[in-house]
Design goal:
The chain is 51% helix and 14% strand. The protein is an alpha/beta fold and 186 residues long. The longest helix is centred in the N-terminal third of the chain and has 45 residues, at 2-46.
Length: 186
């Protein structure tokens, strides 16, 4: 009887080892594939293409004149479970940003709690409970920000880490729009 248990235990042990080797091989291939994708994305971004921000160059899904009281604006998407989002919301609430900001920032949040509930008056907050705007703007990672021109076109996008990144995004987009107008005039 002990010989049967010894063989059964040996067979199960061998099966576990074989399964572990197969899983390790699969994981190694997945890691290699991810490294290739990461290198491809880095190469595309080095060429000036931002593959993670699909709305750039498209019309804004938000009805600009009806919903937002600004000619141009940045729209930022934040989620409660995101540490970077909470940090950005805190930075938006800081005194330094309150004084420096132009009142053309729109923040879309999934929950109005914590830092999200205390954003300054220079920020228009949209509470998107059902995630409709997140879907319309094709937001797959947060925080995500877009600059929308007065014509209603999404001109630039970024994944900001701090409030000053929003001002930099706006300045970059305005500069590019100015350069485009200059090039078209010539």
């Amino acid at each position: 009887m002990s010989m049967i248990w010894f063989v059964a235990f040996g067979s199960v042990s061998l099966a576990v080892v074989v399964l572990a080797v197969v899983v390790m091989g699969i994981l190694r291939r997945v890691v290699q594939a991810l490294a290739r994708v990461e290198a491809l994305v880095a190469d595309l971004e080095a060429k000036g293409l931002d593959v993670s921000l699909p709305m750039v160059g498209q019309a804004s899904p938000l009805q600009v004149p009806d919903t937002i009281p600004y000619e141009d604006f940045t729209i930022t998407f934040l989620e409660l479970g995101c540490d970077a989002c909470r940090s950005l919301a805190s930075d938006l609430s800081s005194r330094r940003f309150r004084r420096a900001a132009t009142p053309n920032h729109v923040v879309v949040v999934d929950e109005l709690v914590g830092e999200f509930a205390h954003l300054p008056p220079t920020v228009t907050v949209i509470h998107d409970v059902e995630g409709t705007l997140f879907d319309e703007w094709q937001v797959t990672a947060t925080p995500t920000s877009y600059y929308v021109s007065a014509a209603g076109l999404v001109r630039a996008g970024h994944h900001p880490n701090k409030a000053s990144d929003l001002e930099a995004l706006r300045a970059k987009a305005i500069k590019e729009i100015g350069l485009a107008h200059t090039a078209n005039a010539n």
